[in-house]
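Table S2 (text version). Query chain:
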Amino acid sequence: MSALRLRPARAADSALLLAWRNDPLTRAASVDTAEVALADHERWLAASLANEGRRLLVAEEHAQAVGSLRADRLPGGAWELSWTVAPHARGRGLGQRMVALLAQELEGPLVARVRAENIASRRIAEACGLVLFSSEGGLLEFRSADSWP
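Corresponding structure-token output:
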């Protein structure tokens, strides 16, 4: 298994992040399946990079970007996680490794919302110790088992 590292995203990652977000398989598996326009993406990225309550990261393996992760601080101190594995890097177990690495860095409860039909992300959440907490409207909410009241 090769070294995987997480680094903060930067403005120079814009084109890469947009391409991954608009990938048809990524969109189909996302909570929001709409295609994102360049101008909207650039506004979102600038706001994300300036948001102290958000950690936006790029996962790299062998100095090649292979995915992105987002952790948003929720009221009460929990972190909501979201992740994308780059199309060229899928099927190698990177999603699980990426999320596990991020989870180790965060203090506090974790939550992830996943589309019910997104089997890969469901498996990633479970493999990282998150348990199914609720299901509503086609979305599954996973939470860290040991840190919620």
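Notes on Table S2: Strands lie at 4-8, 54-61, 64-73, 79-85, 110-115, 130-136, 139-144. The chain has a mean pLDDT of 93.
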